[in-house]
UniProtKB/TrEMBL annotation:
Signal peptide: none annotated. This is EAL domain-containing protein (Putative c-di-GMP-specific phosphodiesterase class I). Residues 87-312 form the EAL domain. PANTHER family: BLUE LIGHT- AND TEMPERATURE-REGULATED ANTIREPRESSOR BLUF (PTHR33121:SF15), CYCLIC DI-GMP PHOSPHODIESTERASE PDEF (PTHR33121). The lineage of its organism: Bacteria, Bacillati, Bacillota, Bacilli, Bacillales. Coiled coil: none annotated. One of its GO terms (molecular function) is cyclic-guanylate-specific phosphodiesterase activity.
Length: 312
């Protein structure tokens, strides 16, 4: 079962006005939309309507209202100026990508120090109807603008779980998720864990990886998500460690099973003293909390050997 956050349904757009005569203008807008048979309601002095209604308000405000004083949001996202609503309309294409599941996975190997395969990271990749690649940064940016990040992240997680059944026994599968796209782990992650159970995937096989660790502002919310996974027997990893919130106190608090050193600290580490300092500090943190230290994006034998000798 899905919810309005995860399902591709008609958008509900909430608008608020900052003018002194906001109450009067809200009523004018309400009457304008009603005359055009566009669904609209008023709650707590804010306007709720659909995408067509928000577009009509955009056009109406150009001539009749100071548009700079009107803001909108989708779901409970941050308020944005109505001037940016065109970006939401222009991102309509992402609805079709999600509905038609135009997604597949690539298997990125993760190696042990002896170069045997420890795991595969399942990387989501997308195509348009003509089969052309849609790059992840493009599609996730569109999802954020259109309020579809919940739905896209869920599609990626479920697709990755389905692909995990092709990974040989004894080799783990790393599955990415965006913690800011999950508002309630008990609800949002239920379908993911249920699918893993349905496919008879051993819980120790799956490692759920927090992407954009350094951008997490609500640490307590992240802890709730990680505890949800842990309570069901799954492991979890943090990426982009070494920046943002990645202090030793936070790491000790979250107790990740795997810590991934970002590739910007990895590539060239064999010959760069500054990168070596970061890598050594990272390794010390991982050892202190009993986490597996994983170096991301190795492309040369020199970097591989240097990191291997230190204990990655």
């Amino acid at each position: 079962m899905s919810c309005n956050h995860c399902a591709i349904t008609e958008l509900t757009v909430e608008l608020t006005l900052k003018q002194q005569n906001a109450a009067e203008l809200v009523q004018i807008i309400h009457d304008f939309l009603s005359r055009h048979d566009i669904p609209v309601r008023i709650e707590n002095s804010n306007i709720f309507t659909n995408e067509n209604g928000a577009t009509s308000i955009y056009d109406f405000s150009v001539d009749h209202i100071q548009i700079d004083d009107i803001f909108f949001r989708i779901h409970d996202d941050e308020w944005r100026p109505l001037l940016e609503f065109k970006e939401v309309v222009e991102a309509q294409w992402i609805d079709k990508v999600i509905q038609k599941r135009q997604i597949h996975c690539h298997y990125q190997p993760i190696l042990n120090a002896d170069k045997s395969v420890y795991a595969y990271e399942l990387l989501a990749r997308f195509t348009d109807e003509e089969g052309s690649i849609i790059y992840p940064n493009v599609i996730f940016d569109a999802a954020r603008k259109r309020g579809r990040l919940y739905a896209l992240d869920r599609l990626c997680r479920l697709t990755a779980v389905r692909h995990a059944i092709h990974i040989p026994k004894g080799i783990k599968a790393f599955i990415n998720f965006i913690p800011t796209s999950i508002y309630s782990p008990e609800f949002c992650l239920r379908s993911t864990t249920a699918l893993a159970e349905h496919l008879a995937l051993a819980t120790e096989k799956l490692v759920f990886e927090v992407v954009e660790t350094d951008k997490v502002d609500d640490v307590n919310h992240l802890k709730t998500i990680l505890h949800y996974y842990q309570d069901r027997g799954f492991n979890y990893a943090l990426d982009d460690v070494g920046t943002g919130h990645s202090t030793i106190n936070l790491l000790a608090d979250l107790q990740p099973h795997v810590m991934k050193l970002d590739m910007k600290f990895v590539q060239g580490v064999a010959h760069n003293k500054q990168l070596q300092v970061v890598a050594e500090q990272f390794l010390q943190k991982a050892n202190e909390i009993g986490s597996i230290p994983l170096a991301e994006g190795i492309e040369t034998e020199e970097d591989f050997d240097w990191l291997k000798q230190r204990g990655y």
